[in-house]
Amino acid sequence: MSEQNQLSVATESHDKAMILRPEGRIDGSNASTLDSAIQEQFEGGNAVLVFDFSNLNYISSAGLRILLVAARDAQSKGGKSVFCGLSTQIAEIFSVSGFDKILTIHPGLPEALDAV
Amino acid sequence: MEQETTQVKEISQEIEKRRPRILMVDDESDLELLVRQRLRRRIRSGDYEFLFASNGQEALEVLKENPDIRLVLSDINMPVMDGLTLLSQLESADPDICAVIISAYGDMGNIRTAMNRGAFDFVTKPIDFNDLQITIDKTLRHIDMIQQALSSRDRLVSLKQELSVAKNVQMSVLPPVPSPNPYYDLHAQMTPAREIGGDFFDYFEVDEFHLGLVIADVSGKGVPAALFTLVSRALLKSAACNHDSPSRCLSDVNELLSQQNDSLMFVTLFYGVLDLRNGNLLYCNGGHNPPMVVRTADNTTSALPTTENMALGIVADHKFNEKLLVLEPGDSLFFFTDGITESSDNTDEEFGESRLEKVLTNQPHENMASMVDSVLKALSNFTVGMEPFDDVTCLALRWNQAKPEK
User: Fold this and answer.
1) Among all residues of chain B, which has the CA nearest to that of A97?
2) Which residues of A touch B315 (CB under 8 A)?
3) CA angle A32-B286-B383, nearest 5°?
4) Cα(A18)–Cα(A50) distance, integer angstroms
5) pTM, full prediction
6) Of the given ranges (A4-13, B146-155, B160-169, B299-308), which has the lowest mean pLDDT?
7) Nearest to A39 by CA among A69, A5, A62, A78
C-alpha cells in the first residue's frame, strides 16, 4: 500500500528547459507532491518544463488534472510544457482521455528537448 | 490533509494571539496593587492581563461579562460568597475555566476540599510571587493545550461529517433498479473507495423506445469531485431531454462544464442511447474507457470503437462525434471505470482489459447480475488483500429482444 503510493520527483536543469522526472505512481493521494514540484519551478522562474515519464508506472485522473493545469500555467507565463518517455499504459491513459490532443508528447527526451 | 493542517495552525495562532485574561478573587484590597506591581513586567509585555473581584459573587458577575476568561485565582475565605462555593458554581457556569486556589498553608483541609472540587492547583499565602508566576504559566499552558485539542477535535468531527455527507450524496443519486421487462436486463454496481471518488453511472428512459446509458469518472477525489459529479450528471440528464443525439448532448455539457473551470476538473463520460426496437446503440465517448460488447453469436468480446473525443470540461469548443453499434438479440454491453482495469495486484500488475475480456467471454452469464458478479469476483481474486485505490463501478446491459411498436 505505502510502497505503491510513493512518488518522488527528480529535477534536472538543462540549458533550455527544466526536466522533471516523476518516479513511481501518481494518484489522488500524492498528486500534490507533483503539484508542489511544478510550482517550485514556476516560482524559480522556470516556465519551460519537460516531463520525462520514463520512470512513471501509473497516473490517475487527479494527476492528469495537475498536468493540465501545469500546461496552461506554463503557457500563460510565456513558457511551454512537453511530455516524453510515456510507457504503453500511460500513453493509453493519455489517448483514451483525449489529452494527447492538447498536450505535446514526444517519444524520448532528445526529441522533447529539441522541441522546446 | 494540507488544508486541515493550515486550518489547525490558524486556529492555534489565533489562540496564541489572544492575550490570556486572569481573574483574581480576594477580599484583601491591597492584593490588587501588589499583583500589579510584582507582575508588572509580564503585564506590560502583554503576557497576560488581570481583572479583580473581591468575593465569589462579584467573580461570577465579572466572568459573565468576560466569557473569554479561562483562569481564576481565588482565595477561600471571603465574605458574601467564599472560594469553595465559587468553585462549585464555576463547574456549572463554565467547565472550561481553570481555578487555582490561594490560601494559607495552615488551611490544608480547605485546600484539599478545593482540589477535590476540581481546582487545578494551589499556591499558599503569604504569596511567593515567583511561585505564583510559575503556577500561572503552567496553568495557562495547560489551558492552551486543552483549547487546541478541542478545536482540532471539532474540525475533525466536522470534516468527517462533510465527507460522509458527500459519500451519501454520491450513493443516493444513483438510479433505482429498473423494473424487470422482456426487452432488456440491466445491472449496475458501484463500490466507492475509502475516500469518496467521482464515479457515477446512470440510465433513464429518454422515451418509450430509447434507453439512455451513462458511465463517467470525475478527476480527483473528495468533496470537490463529488460536487462535480452531481453537476455533470444533472447537466447530462437535462441535455438528454432536449436532444436525441449523444454527441450534441456531450457538446452541451462540455461547454457548460468548461466555463470558468479554473481548476481544470474534468469528467470522462460515455453516453449511449439504445433503441429498444432494433438494438441500435448511438453513442459518444468523451475520453472514457471504451465499454465492451459481448457478441452472443460467436461469444467474442471487443471494445467499442472510439469516437476520438476528449474528456469534458477542458476545451469548450471541442467537437464531439458519434458512432453507431448494432446489437443482435442476446448481445451485452459492459460499461466500467478505470477502478476495474487499473486495479493492480501486489506486483503492481494491472487487471487490464484483456483479463476483463476473458471474464466476459469465458462463461455464459445467465443474467447481468451474474456477469457483474463474476467480474467483481475475478477482480478481487486478482487484487487479493490490496486496498482499492479507486471507486469500482460497472454497468452491464443485455438487449434481449425488440420492443414492438404497437
Assistant:
1) B287
2) 102
3) 60
4) 6
5) 0.71
6) B160-169
7) A69
| Mean pLDDT, all residues of chain B | 88
Name the minimum distance, in Å, from the CA of A52 to any CA of chain B: 20
List every span in chain B annotated with CATH 3.40.50.2300.
2-156
**Beta-carbon separation of A65 and B264 below 8 A:** yes
B230 CB contacts (<8 Å, ≥6 apart)?
A: B169, B173
- For residue A27, what is the domain's CATH number? 3.30.750.24
A36 part of a folded domain:
yes
CATH topology for B2-156 is Rossmann fold (3.40.50)
**Which residues of chain B have a CB within 8 Å of the CB of A62?**
219-221
Q: Which three cell numbers stand for residue B345?
A: 495486484
Residue of B nearest to A5 (CA): B389
| Domain B173-399 belongs in CATH node 3.40.50.2000 | no
Domain, as residue range, for A78: 7-109
Is the Cα dihedral B162, B168, B171, B173 positive or negative?
negative
A114 in any annotated domain: no
Angle at B88 between CA B129 and CA B64, to 5 degrees: 80
Contacts of B257 in chain A (CB under 8 A): none
Q: What is the pLDDT of residues B346-364, one digit of tens each?
A: 887 889 999 999 999 977 7
Q: What is the pLDDT of residues B242-263, one digit of tens each?
A: 899 999 999 999 999 998 888 8
Give, as one character, the DSSP assignment of residue B243. -
How wide is the angle at C-alpha A31 spanned by C-alphas B316 and B198, nearest 5°?
55
Nearest to B26 by CA among B83, B64, B68, B71: B83
